[in-house]
Design goal:
- The structure is a single chain.
- By secondary structure, the protein is α+β, with helices and mostly antiparallel strands.
- Helices cover 36% and strands 14% of the residues.
- The strands form five sheets. A seven-stranded mixed β-sheet has the order 3-2-1-4-7-6-5. The chain has a five-stranded antiparallel β-sheet with strand order 10-18-19-11-20.
- α5 crosses α6.
- The radius of gyration is 29 Å and the shape is globular.
Length: 698
């Protein structure tokens, strides 16, 4: 540990070397560079509490040499950064309180209110009319990272007001996109810390309203067939040229609804800003219901809660779901090169690494180069979500006499399936005649056509629920369930992976917490009785539409993230056998997607079987995570199994707010359901009163 003299000498040197840094960033850099650890500062502040109070009250000068040094340091800051207006004025005692709050709060250090805590932050004074802005509702969040004092994102309106989280408003003087990027990186204080010690900080996000887009020279909407199809500005657009002339770059996606503008990193410092343009449909209505029509402050609140609980949005919810996997499982970590005596980038165990891995032929899609170039004709893995309707002739008279058809929906079924899911991490290897091992993830060619199950239940081995007709490729979980049901499994051949791990565990944990916490904010908590839960779910969207939109986005993140693991080629110019951009990602892993969906379908069938054994009830239809049952009443409480104590029976469908538990999807008459079944239509698709979206992970 450096001495006091060395400590403050290095501080003074840094002050002289980097006068261009804004005070919040400089303070964070100084604390790190000078080695002022939390414990050391907290101890110093704890022993001099009264001296600080006397100093702030003007009764005496601090006697501690350490505090005298702090005072000299703060006076230097005050001289270099004079206040430009009353709202931005910060005295030396106030800065000292802010520094104490960030490092010595646990030790009971004295705190003076910071600028961020006393009101909206502005970079320059504005007229009275411009200051009359709506204030967003505040959502509690952890203590801010000192490098990003204003949160992860801001929503910019046409008047230059940037609405951040917790009701904060910043003044943005930029009039061009390059100026906006410079302001965001240099002055805004926006960004978010990394989610994993080996990861990267999240780039700041600026959301542009329609008026803001026009202010920066962008079209309010992308018009014309070509622009709407590609969703990007043409390369000769003036704004795109501005970006290039300012030595900034756009990613290959170009300037679209989610534009990423960057310069190559200098050392460890990233220079990248994400833009989202609301009037270009950046926030899809299905994933973010009603958000694009909200006021800027409320949009900032919705996106801020999502950023805090999930990740700063980086595109669609599907893109964010995939990015979250990488953010929580970074592909590399620093390793010490003993020979060279420095640190190098090495593989991070448990991750997917930095290089893409081609799938086995049966795991690929028909247009994949692995299939086309090898002439593969041995069939494909068909692990998809259920789309099954029970044959009408299997309905009994007693079932047809029941008055209601009640739909149950499993909460984020794919997320529940991702819990403790062991998947392959390395490339597939081909084996012939190997013995089945339920602990090895992979794809197996097996004949299950001899297995005959109750026709009132769907087959667990096919997404249509039909009995297999011959040898087919199955994921490990499907075959493990066949063994669980008491059937022998004899693989013909297999593609297996030697390196395995629970890659999705941190992804599952973070999204589960986000889902449960957001439901709790809407009044749906774990301590509710089943009847209270049903009532709360009927009303939760009206409690707070903004948080209801966050909940919808979390669910879309789960489904879309799983779908992105097998993203298909896009564009009418694609030719079969060519490599498409998604194949360059290490996260293009159709085998992991198949594992999630296989486990989700097996979980559904297990519950269906347990329900039949406990209650004698059989489903009318299943669509992914929605199942429809005949019922004596409009409430699931009248057909779900309960013990004599009143507690739900384990193993069957149970009501509750956590992933894998069920909620009421909808109620219709039994006559309505039977008529749909006779037409070959799926009642589970329409039980809610409209067309359901099949959760295939697409």
């Amino acid at each position: 540990m450096a001495s006091e003299e060395e400590l403050f000498a290095s501080v003074d040197a840094l002050l002289n070397e980097e006068p261009h840094l804004p005070p919040p960033v400089e303070r964070a850099r100084l604390r790190e560079a000078a080695g002022i650890t939390q414990a050391r500062l907290a101890a110093a502040l704890k022993t001099t509490t009264q001296s600080v109070k006397n100093w702030e009250n003007g009764r005496s000068e601090p006697k501690s040499p350490r505090l005298e040094a702090y005072q000299r340091l703060l006076k230097g800051w005050a001289a270099k950064y004079p206040a430009r207006d009353a709202a931005a004025a910060v005295t030396a005692p106030a800065v000292f309180g802010e520094l104490a709050a960030s490092r010595g709060e646990a030790a009971g250090a004295p705190q003076a209110p910071s600028v961020a805590a006393t009101g909206p932050v502005r970079t320059a004074p504005r007229s009275t009319a411009a200051s009359r802005r709506p204030v967003a509702k505040k959502t509690p969040r952890p203590s801010a990272d000192p490098r990003f004092p204003h949160g992860p994102l801001a929503v910019l309106d046409g008047g230059g007001c940037a609405y951040g989280v917790d009701g904060m408003v910043l003044d943005c003087p930029a009039t061009t996109i390059p100026e906006l990027v410079e302001w965001t990186l240099g002055e805004s204080g926006l960004g978010a810390p990394k989610l994993n010690r080996y990861g990267k900080d999240s780039d700041p996000l600026i959301v542009l309203t329609a008026a803001a887009a026009v202010r920066f020279g962008l079209p309010e909407r992308l018009e014309g067939h070509e622009q709407r199809r590609s969703l990007r500005l043409p390369e000769d657009h003036p704004v795109v040229k501005q970006v290039g002339r300012a030595k900034w770059q756009l990613t290959q996606r170009g300037f679209g609804p989610w534009a990423r503008i960057y310069r190559k990193a200098q050392g460890r410092e990233r220079q990248c800003v994400q833009l989202a343009i609301l009037s270009w449909d950046a926030l899809d209505e299905r994933s973010w219901p009603g958000v694009a029509e909200m006021e800027p402050a409320e949009i900032a609140r919705v996106l801020g809660v999502y950023a805090q609980r999930v990740i700063t949005p980086r595109g669609s919810t599907a893109v964010s779901g995939l990015e979250l996997m990488t953010a929580l499982r970074p592909p590399t970590k620093p390793e010490r090169d003993e020979g060279a005596g420095n640190w190098v980038s090495g593989y991070n165990p448990g991750s997917l690494g930095t290089e893409p891995v081609d799938p086995a032929p049966p795991e690929a899609t028909p247009e994949h180069p692995v299939v086309v170039q090898s002439g593969w004709s041995g069939g494909f893995l068909d692990e998809e979500a259920y789309q099954w309707v029970r044959p009408v002739e299997t309905l009994s008279d007693e079932e047809c006499m029941l008055p209601f058809a009640v739909g149950l929906d499993l909460n984020t079924a794919f997320l529940a399936a991702a819990a403790r899911l062991v998947v392959g991490l390395s490339a597939p290897e081909h084996f012939v005649g190997s013995e089945f091992n339920p602990k090895i993830p992979g794809s197996w060619l097996v004949d299950l056509s001899h297995i005959e199950l109750d026709p009132r239940l769907p087959s667990p081995f096919t997404p249509t629920g039909s009995r297999p007709t011959g040898p087919a490729w199955y994921q490990t979980h499907t075959l493990a369930y066949a063994q669980e049901l008491g059937y022998d499994v004899h693989p013909i051949e297999a593609y297996l992976r030697r390196e395995t791990g629970a890659y999705l565990d941190p992804w599952h944990d973070r999204l589960k917490s986000a889902y449960v916490d957001t439901l709790a904010d809407l009044g749906v908590t774990k301590d509710l009785s089943d009847a209270e839960f049903l009532t709360a779910m009927e009303q939760h969207k009206q409690v707070d539409p903004a948080l209801a939109a966050v909940l919808a986005a979390i669910k879309a993140t789960v489904k879309g993230g799983v779908g992105k693991l097998r993203e298909r080629p896009q564009g009418r110019h694609y030719k079969e056998g060519e490599r498409w951009p998604a194949l360059q990602r290490p996260t293009w892993r159709p085998d992991i997607r198949a594992a999630v969906i296989s486990k989700a379908r097996v979980n559904m069938h297990r519950k269906l079987g347990n329900m039949a054994r406990m209650t004698g009830l059989f489903p009318l239809a299943v669509l992914s995570d929605c199942v429809v049952y005949p019922s004596p009443s409009a409430s699931p409480l009248d057909f779900l199994p309960y013990a004599e104590s009143g507690k739900p029976q384990p193993g069957a469908f149970r009501l509750g707010p956590t992933p894998g538990l069920a909620k009421l999807e909808g109620v219709q008459s039994m006559l309505w359901a039977v008529e749909l079944m006779e037409k070959g239509l799926n009642p589970a698709r329409h039980i809610k009163g409209g067309d359901a979206v099949v959760d295939e992970g697409e």
